[in-house]
Amino acid sequence: MRLPRSGAGWTMAVFGVLALLLGALGLVWPEAQLRMLGFEIPAERAPGDYTGTFLTASSMASFNMGVYYLLAAATEWRPFYRFTVWFRLVTFSVFSIAVLSEVAPGRFFGVAAWEGLGAVATAAALWWDARRVAPAGAPDDTAAGAGSVPAADPAH
Length: 156
Fold this sequence. Notes:
Shape: elongated
Order of helices and strands: HHHHHH
Oligomer: single chain
Distance between the termini: 26 Å
Mean pLDDT: 87
Number of strands: 0
Structural class: mainly alpha
Number of helices: 6
């Protein structure tokens, strides 16, 4: 796999690795995942309690999302980076509301904070990367500084 070539790419890679690892943890050791989120783990589940099913689905989604983010980082897929900023802010809002309305335990706010901070970090990195772009007509990467990002992505 290629290493990210921009600050925004690194934010995608870090989130991707963590999403992949936490998804794998939820699949392999669901009780640990529930403890990390502040949920109670009863000795026995009542009939009709689908916590395990839901955790398996959420963990698989997290694992897959990690793969998507790593793919985006490896290919420097900047439209995806911008897309994630907005939807991670939406996720921050929904998860924060879940905690504030006592649908989720207070510890779950850590998930909301992670999403919000990740969105802000990616937005800041996108802004920073745009400032580092090579001036028009620069003969090579050395004129613009090593590791500069492309001036435009294929979508623009």
